[in-house]
Amino acid sequence: MKVIIVGGVAGGMSAATRLRRLNEEAQIIIFEKGPYVSFANCGLPYYVSGEITDKSQLLVQTPESLQARFNLDVRPNHEVVAIDAVNKTVTVAYDGQHSTESYDHLILSPGAKPFVPPIDGLTEATNAFSLRNVPDLEKIMGVVEKQAPKNAVVIGAGFIGLEMAETLHARGLNVTIVEKAPHVLPPLDEEMAAFITKELTANGVTVRTSQSAVAFKENGKTILLEDGSELASDLTILSVGVTPENSLAKAAGIELGLRGGILVDERYETSAKDIYAVGDAIVVKNQISGEDALISLASPANRQGRQVADILSGMKRTNKGSIGTAIVRTFNMTAASTGLSERAVRLLDKPFAVVHTSGKDHAGYYPGATDIHMKLIFNPETGEIYGAQGVGQKGVDKRIDILATAIKGNLTVEDLPELEFTYAPPFGSAKDPVNMLGYVALNVMEGLTDMIQWHEVTDATQSGKVILDVRNDSERQQGQFKNSVNIPLNDLRARLHELDQDTEYIITCHSGLRSYVAERILKQADFKVENLDGAFSLYHTVLPEELDYV
User: Fold this and answer.
1) Are 267 and 182 a contacting pair, CB within 8 Å?
2) Residues 93 and 78: beta-carbon distance below 8 Å
3) Statement: residue 219 has pLDDT above 90
4) Which of 7, 428, 455, 466 is deepest in the core (most CB within 10 A)?
5) Residue 39 has pLDDT above 90, yes or no
6) Within 10 Å of residue 436's Cβ, how many Cβ atoms?
7) Which positions are catalytic?
8) Strand order, beta sheet including 485-486
């Protein structure tokens, strides 16, 4: 069996090494159009920041090491420029020459390429770069180390954009982020992304949302935004997303799908017989919605590469799709998500409910505990978990990984309180934040609580509902809801006579726990009440301008 793999890195190299472990006799050739066949592209921003000091640490394997350990024929700087699916050959360009190589099976792992927006003057901008591979990194470092830039602009506030904003700030540059969406981290919902915006601004990064660059002037030294304002830039990073690298497949007549992604079946085979595809270039199924999706992440690419090698070796494997679990660090905060956002669920017209919780990464009485803000999106009729998001300084990765596993394992919100985790005060809480999400969601499903969301408060108060704040007086110094009534929770039973049975109340505290207790007290006293989901801690992060401050 002769297998040709086009493209290395995650998908291609996982396929090659797994195939070799299963088949010592197969002839395996990897053509990589760039100089590096196996590198840690997710680690590139951390070399810019200086956290990774040796660039060789980013080079996972070399052609020589792959040959020695796996007997792989790795050919860097070899670009496959054409596929003849009928005669099962590829045309390869190297050093100005073209050659032809036959195959029994062909695996395409071309990855994705940065999306370059059609902005006036961009082609003349000598200081504008994307970051996708090691040569890109070398260009950026050439500017950082040799030209002493002062001002940097990052266009796009996705995961890579935020990483680059942090790393350039660590290099001492004044950094401005420009994002077309209404908030940073568009994969997250607005209120969860607000915590990251707060962290960026607290560290001196300027955030410009609902804006896009419309022109580059002076060879990129000046950037014109759509509102007419201008930004000075010595270094610009373009991070506005990626698009499947499909040119080779398209020219070969292979069927394409969503946004030009390569269509594959459950065995990763394309519309052309014996041609397979994996990684960022392919269309996958979102396991939750069942819809086509493009999920450009390292973990799915590695899994797909391994699975296609299994399939070529006669093993039963199927492409089950992905749920898109991702994480990013921004200064001292971490944001992570898995599954569908609330926005995505709304577009699917599915029944859904949302709960927010605020807890600690470990026992609050043990030193060093920090806040974790969690969001769960689920079906209130069946308990199916659609997605989750988390923001905090520590422990976010653990909780989102657990919830991603729950989704993959078809667990429901009813199962979350039953999950058992290791517990000691330095590591967690007896009721873990994941357990708490389950408890709150069950309360919603079983009718023990009626939630109102942060974005519904203004309309509700304008219609006559009154906010009842059960925080203590000292807490209200941090900010208070306008025209609210304040009765601390511990005084509530003795002061029920101060409330009007005909008034509808929205109860809030700091995190939502005390307000739930108040809700139960008031409902059993025949008051009409709702609990503000996420409470003050969420509301004052998203809408601080709507509060009064002493």
Assistant:
1) no
2) yes
3) yes
4) 7
5) no
6) 22
7) 42
8) 451-452, 528-532, 504-508, 466-469, 485-486
